[in-house]
Amino acid sequence: MLLRLPATLHYPIIIRKVEKQVDEEIKHRDVLFTYTYIGKVTHQDKYTDEEVEVDKVFPAHFQSTLEGTIQSWLVWEGDEIREPRDILDVNEPCKHSVQFNGMCVECGRDMTEVDFAGDEYNDRANIQGAHDTDKLLISQDEASEADQLDKRHLLNNRKLSLVVDLDQTIIHAAVDPTIGEWQKDPDNPNYEALKDVRAFQLVDEGPGVRSCWYYIKLRPGLEQFLESIAEKYQLHIYTMGTRQYAREIAKIVDPDRKYFEDRILSRDESGSMVAKNLTRLFPVDTRMVVIIDDRADVWKWSPNLLRVSAFDFFVGIGDINAGFLPKKQEIPSTKKIEAPKETKTTDTNGHTGALTAEAEPVANGEVSEDATPAQTDTTALQQVVAMTRPDADAAIQEQQVHTQDEVIASQLEDKPLLRLQQQMDEKDGLGSDSTANPPPEPITTQHTDSDSSDSETSSNSGKAKRHSILRDDDEELIHLKRSLRAVHERFFIEYDRKRTSGAGKGGRVAALAGKQKAPIPDAQSSSSDLHNVPDVKKIMPTLKERILAGVVIVFSGVLPLNTDIQTADISIWAKSFGARISDKVNKEITHVIAARVGTAKVKTAVKRGIKVVGLDWLMHSIQQWRKLNERPFMLKGIGQKELLNDLKDPSSEVEAAESDPVDASMVAVMGDADSKLSSEEDTSALNDTEESEDDGQRKKRPKLDLHDMPALDPNADPEFVSPNSPVELSKAEWQDMEDELNDFLGSDIDSESDAESVRSDRNLTTRTKKRGRDDDTDGESGTDGEGRNGDMGNKRQKGGRTSALRAVKNAESSGGNTPQDQAGVSKLERAQTQEEYEAELAIELERQMEEAAEGEDNS
Amino acid sequence: MFFLRYLEREISLHPSFLGNNINDFLQRKLYEDMEGSCNGEYYIICIMDIYNISAGKVRPGTGIAEFTILYRAILWKPFKGEAIDCVVQGVKPQGVFCEAGPLSVFVSKMHLPRDYKYNPDATPVNYSGPEGDTIQKGQAVRVQILGLRSDVNQLFAIGKMSAGWFGLLT
Predict the structure, then answer these.
(1) CA-to-CA distance for A315 and A468, rounded, in angstroms?
(2) For residue B83, is pLDDT > 80?
(3) Element (H, E) at A305
(4) Residue A103 and residue B149: Cβ atoms within 8 Å?
(5) Rounded mean pLDDT of A244-259?
(6) In this structure, what are the phi and psi dihedrals at residue A852, rounded to the nearest 5 degrees?
(7) Averaged pLDDT of chain A
(8) Which residues on adjacent β-strands are paired with residue A43?
(9) Chain-chain contact of A135 with B156 (C-beta, under 8 angstroms)
């Protein structure tokens, strides 16, 4: 150990006399050498009485901060030292490299005492050395030694390390007492799914509750998964649950303790409540570590992470141990919990609202609001520091523990599952007219049903069957197993390749090095051996990036408003698989991921022949590590068109779009003039509307034929509609114009209406379009528009875009009316007199609605 | 080492407890508070008897009454150099965690009996000796305490098994 001078001395110093010789034993605080330094003193001049500063030489001595025998001096008498440097090599009897709770485990010395020179023995060992305690600290050297041993051990067994998260990754836990009741009741629709749910009791959890039952559902196929994965991986548990909890889970998951043994890290030892850090377990090197977790943000999107989709068995419960974490970004869930989602969205009574507001935020929402501020303003570095000093933010933790307790308590009281099931039952009753059914009958039918096909989707089962809200159809682990095997395989192929190819070269290098430095041959060969270890951080991303490479995605209606699409959870996830995310539908886009039909982006995509798929496609592709065929995931409402597009040669589609660029250019040029020109236009359109009001079936098809358009989509924008374009523009120019137009107008839809207003020679087309939309909106404008008086000029309409109409749109926007309905409504409306300006209002309303929809999509 | 010692404890009672069975309350509170506690120097293992409860003094302004209880308890105070028997609780590459009642003792691999080697492959993980004997979780060992350190209400020790007569108990 080299003894370094502290920074607190009065540099420069000159060493005068060395007191201790080489091989001499030194103790703490023994004088090592004397030195002199120059200080300034104020001195009164004896003649002038003035105070002058004079340099003065002071003698001093330096005491040892180390103990042991002196190996060698690096400085000698007469040397001038200008800055802190190593002066002495001391052979210490104890390096204090492993410390247990402030004691050196070898010599038993107190490591917390602080030296006069500011040296702390504490600093010698600052790496957490064990999974299950934060009291054992080891030094860097010790850690890398342990790491080497570990690695060699793994390589010999051809294994990697796998860090496994518990909650929602391999299990799902809940404390809702309803589960226990359901488990005892064979008649309950959820009985089948709950059969293998395990329970344990933890004492002293939650306020006022001495103990509470935890219900644990293992992810389907977990046992086989662990068994086969344990051959390839050494398994570690890293959970945000408490130590007790983690132990209990381990007991359930791994009763023989053969997979995890003692490699369990819980939040008690983690050192951080809000983040997981791989360096806590692998302080030196993470080249051979794979993580599986359902949350990527807690790992800061570590490249070691293989993210799995969350196991959400107990619907609406979420992760009971995620109270400290920032709120999870909700991804619209996939098919498996479709049913309960439906209950939430379709039920219009206040009941559901209350439930959704409670069930989810209770799980993680309100708590995280407390937790996030504390977390966001700490940098990553601070977090790491905090992790090694676990008691630093004890107060915050204390508070968080309380909020966590509240989460559990509220779940115990609220019984969210019970309520969900009740709603499901209610819905069943409403939907299948079986409200009056006597209880005995459903039970019998349900018995047979649930025995044969419990997890089956309930569409074909009898109407008397009560739908279960819990589904046991998760298959993530099967895919996960495959992906993990792929990573393992790839890793060792790489390793073998490097080893065989590097053997000759490495041998030479080793031989050369051996000649020069004559080191121990063993160490040399072993280090070169470990040099060949490939890096999971490189292997896994390359594997993943291939999967969706070349895919460019636009989200439509998937992400909530005001989310940054590039940093949204799902986006980062998709990007890690090689996909690119865009916010506009342009030429590059290969897939539009849409939550519902009818958004502007979907329309544009359909028109251009871009595949419109549900979020399921992305999720399943990510889950299964391969780009799936889009067909089964095509969005329902536009499926036919989609197929049509698929069948058609895509180039013809492009041609169709390109053949009529002039209209668009005209629109682009005239777009800004529309407000001046539109009045005549609008009225004519309205006249047309009146004419054709009765004819509900008349569509724009004939008009299109009139224009001689080949296979044009009914939803196509007018930009694309005119075939008889006198001017030919190149593709690039066309693209530029379109972009400009889009930028200017903000949306395609806007341009649609604008275009209508401008072009009088295409009245027919626009009129029919208008009619369709008028029908859409007349109902709304009837209620709202009637109240407005006076003549509405077009300019005024423009100016009044933010009028009260906006308030209506929310209520109406969800309604996807059928033409028949609209026709009926519109007839009623026509009975009233002021048709003209009603229709005007309708146009205006429509425009606003679409704007709003567009804004939603963009975000 | 175990001691029998007279100790003193002040207990405050809320006025609502001031009644016929006040002695019961005081006694129960004393047992609850003190048994199994650690003051950083010793553990109170068991309270033997109470031999005096002082007259209560009402704290002015609050109504809370204070009593001083004199009692006798069995203490356990571990000493440096003392030999204790413990149970192995965890086996790590750096050493072995043992527990002697409430005290957790860490024995570094340096201080294990001579020639014990770490076997990460074994289930459960263990240190094995030359004669095939293993130190693994759940085994009883005799440890000499090398150093002690107290936390707020817990003691920690490090120990060694390397000297004669220490190590596995058979």
Answers:
(1) 11
(2) yes
(3) strand A305-307
(4) yes
(5) 86
(6) -60, -45
(7) 67
(8) A52
(9) yes
- Check B158 against A262: CB less than 8 A apart: no
Give which of A547, A549, A510 is closest to A529, Cα–Cα: A510
- What average pLDDT score do residues A61-88 get? 88
Q: Is the pLDDT of residue A773 over 60?
A: no
A101 vs B contacts (CB less than 8 Å): 149, 151, 156
Of A34-38, A42-46, A158-162, A429-433, the one with minimum mean pLDDT is: A429-433
The pLDDT of residue A143 is above 90: no
**Whether B131 contacts B21, CB under 8 Å:** no
Six-digit token string for A749: 């839809």
Contact assessment for residue A713 and residue A699, using Cβ atoms and an 8 Å cutoff? no
Residue range A351-363: average pLDDT? 37
> Where residue A514 falls among pLDDT bands split at 50, 70, 90?
very low
For A176, other C-beta atoms within 10 Å of its C-beta total 24
Q: Contact, B53 vs B2, CB < 8 A?
A: no
Cα–Cα distance, A244 to A132 (Å, whole number) = 11
* Distance, CA of A635 to chain centre: 24
Helix (H) or strand (E) holding B27: helix B22-34
The residues of A assigned a catalytic role are: 165, 167
Q: What count of CB pairs under 8 Å joins A to B?
A: 72
Task: For residue A634, report the phi and psi dihedrals to the nearest 5 degrees.
Answer: -55, 145
Diameter of chain B measured on Cα atoms = 71
Q: Which of A442-451, A497-506, A787-796, B150-159 has the lowest mean pLDDT?
A: A442-451
**Which amino acid would we find at residue A791?**
D
Terminal-residue alpha carbon distance, chain A: 59
Torsion sign (Cα): A780, A786, A787, A788: positive
Environment class of A374 (CB within 10 Å of its CB; exposed 0-12, middle 13-18, buried 19+): middle
Of the two residues A622 and A360, the one the predictor is more confident about is: A622
What single letter denotes the amino acid at residue B41?
A: E
pLDDT digits over A519-532, tens only?
334 434 455 567 77
Nearest residue in B to A138, CA atom: B94
Q: What's the Rg (C-alpha) of chain B? A: 22
Asked if A851 and A750 touch (Cβ cutoff 8 Å), the reply is yes
- DSSP annotation of A361 reads I
Global pTM value: 0.63
Q: For residues A426 and A198, what is the distance between their CA atoms, to the nearest angstrom?
A: 29
Distances (CA, A) of A253 to A219, A675, A739: 10, 69, 56
* pLDDT (0 to 100) of residue B75: 94
The answer on pLDDT for A187 being more than 70 is yes
Per-residue model confidence (pLDDT) at position A499? 80
- Could you check whether the bond before residue B124 is cis, i.e. omega within 30 degrees of 0? yes
Q: Phi and psi of A238, rounded to 5°?
A: -135, 110
> Which position has the token pair 């220490």?
B166
